[in-house]
Amino acid sequence: MAPRLRFAPSPTGYFHVGGARTALYNWAFARQQGGTLILRIEDTDVERNKEEWVEGIYDAMRWVGLTWDELYRQSERMALYEAAAAQLEATGHAYWCDCTRGDIDARAKERGGPPGYDGHCRDRGLRAGDGRALRFRTPDDGVTVVHDIIRGDVEFPNATLDDPIIVRSNGTPIFVLANVVDDADMRITHVVRSEEHLPTTPKYILLWHALRAGGGAEGRPGELPVFAHCPVVVNEQRKKLSKRRDPVALELYRDEGYLPEVMVNYLALIGWSPPDGRERFTLEEMVRDFRLEDVGRSPGFFDVKKLRAFNGDAIRAMTVDDFVAAVEPFAVQLPWADQFDVDRFRTVAPLVQERVEVLSEAAPMVDFLFLDEPVVDEAAWAKAMGDEQAGAVLDAVATSWESIEWRADVIGEVTLAAGEPLGLSRKKAQAPVRVAITGRSVGPPLWESLELLGREPALARLRSARARL
RNA sequence: GGCCCCAUCGUCUAGUGGCCUAGGACACCACCCUCUCAAGGUGGCGGCACGGGUUCGAAUCCCGUUGGGGCUGCCA
Description:
Elements: E1 4-7, H1 17-32, E2 36-41, H2 51-63, E3 70-73, H3 78-90, E4 94-97, H4 101-111, E5 133-136, E6 143-148, E7 152-157, E8 165-167, H5 175-185, E9 190-194, H6 201-214, E10 226-230, E11 233-234, H7 250-256, H8 260-269, H9 283-289, E12 300-301, H10 304-316, H11 320-331, H12 342-353, H13 362-365, H14 378-385, H15 390-401, H16 408-419, H17 426-438, H18 446-453, H19 455-468
Parallel strand pairs: 1-2, 2-3, 9-10, 11-12
Antiparallel strand pairs: 4-5, 5-8, 6-7
The protein binds one RNA strand through strand 7, strand 8, helix 5, strand 12 and helix 10.
């Protein structure tokens, strides 16, 4: 039987890299096995869900090329959860509870025991009503074992499980209930999700069996899925990524100019590596080589530096035309977009291509070729023009440019030569010129830039810089 | 507090009892190249958390300790 997987994000914030990695593992396994990938939006908590976050999930997944075969929204399936809850109540697996958080904490403190729910309402025979939530009755003894492809068998003593709420007092289901009901209904065979869900998995399994034992006519669970709890992606403090605190929204990376294929390549590497140990691979290669049992067990840090390095390599590997085409959407968003000229950019593109790591850096690197005046970096100016020889260098260079053939190699030759009578090293001679022309101390090769800029504009910038000294 | 997971260079990892004097990648450092910055080349720094076992032999297996993380929500 072909496997059926599901990726089940909740739209309570932007879509982050950890979610993307989980989606990727689900996707790779499903595609490899010729299985089905279901995208299930877990939006049962009306309080904190937002429609824009749902769109964010779709956009993000499309951006990295993770396609899904079936789409569901839990908010449209409430009847199913209600029926399951009713069944659990009817079979004695669930009971109504009117305890508030305060009640529970007070009792825990009073008896001096561990915090948590004590089963206070188990046998009170409460009926549904205002302020009452439905709890699932967990066994008092025995052990529930989770069979996990990545972690092996994990055992949980049932006595350590509190009776979880499965239906809120407002009638909406809690995620573990909706999860079990949907996984059963959708005939999910593999639950591939992040490690943080491992501790609640025994409740999932118990719920599953309770639903099956109930003997309801329809929607009865079949075979329990197998689990694969992937290690979480953590921040620098080694904590689970937080949507609020950590700048890890996938769209952030897209907007900065990371390539989607690099993104998935890097993401896959946090927790998995191909059998031959190579680090660069395509989605196709991953689909071929991916194995759930090869996924690691320890949490991984999302290292932007490595991502950047990979992205830089990928950018350099592009054809010039592809690179230019990829840069254009970023250029048109610039404040000076109206001055940007693709064809002009194309002539310096190879020079820019090997100097950027993200696409958004490309056009700004050569802004001086498009603007009437270079934007001057004051620190660079102070350093380059601080030398008492600076003015003399600018004058000498300007003179040398007057009548030469305006070609990069010639420009370079005469410019460097111009500094020699002044006793300046080559490095020193080019610095004031570079700042006068580009406004900065670093950038693409100067001679080529000058050739493209043109003699008159170049001389004008030299004069302008001279005047400012 | 209770339960659970995890533990190889700074980071991501390879390693599944001898091939390990522990390999790679990113980062970092040095040098070369060089009009700046990159790119590229060469070299370097750097790790099996600790303690007990098991074994002829342990990064690899077992136990403990320590450390980190997660869950313990009418969030997912």
